[in-house]
Amino acid sequence: MVNSDPLTIAETAIIEFERSKVPGVWTGLNKQQIIAEIRSRLLNPFNINQGSQPFCGPAAIIFELARKHPAAYIQLCRNLFQIGGFHTHTNRWIPSPVYLQQSQVNVKISQVDWMVLSTLRESENLIFSVDPNAPQLLRNLAGITKPWEIGGWTQEILGYQTIHYHYAYLFGDLEAIQKANQIVKSGGVAFGLINDFGLLLNKPPVFSYPSHWVALLDQLNIDYNRNMIEFNLFTWGQQMQIKVDIKTFKTYFWAVVTGI
Prior knowledge:
The protein is α+β, with helices and mostly antiparallel strands. The protein is built from eleven helices and eight strands. The strands form two sheets. It has a six-stranded antiparallel sheet, with helices on both faces. A two-stranded antiparallel ribbon has the order 1-2.
């Protein structure tokens, strides 16, 4: 009988990658280190971490790929390492630029996350390129992920066909996160655009602005009597539980992209 357990299938894929004699095209990366990091993400997708790089959008997408489609995540990593690119669900070819393949990983990010997240981010860049050694302003400009990019990756990388954008710039914040929670509970995915300083770091900016993508998880509780909202999300290599008053939430919550 063929074993259809997703984790067993994924582990078989890792073993095949490990045994392959095809050399990698990423000269600055170590295959055994890549495989060890892939295994850690297979066991716990929350290990995916953008580190010090502005890759929050790609990290949220790849987190959901590793969590929901582990074998597809491993195949993406293997193709990227061995042949320098991968095909998406829409048959789009996403290559890794040669300059990224030859870059030395001297930044605070794991090798596999650097390989995957930098490639995904660079695939959408038209003006500013991913450069870990650039000044912070230029790195941040190259790392900006727009809602339509998240929507495109949700379809191309994750394979969801129905993509919705729920903007909450002026109003509709609670409705947006409630709809997102319904989608997640139905087996879909939801990505929130927030201000991380105000909502995650307790460092409220003078003016709120959209700055960070997170993957929304399935827990949501809105207590209208106490004027509080509580929900879980993934970012920065961890699950975070957010509990704030509704006014704070509305101030720092900007949009949701969902896929089902």
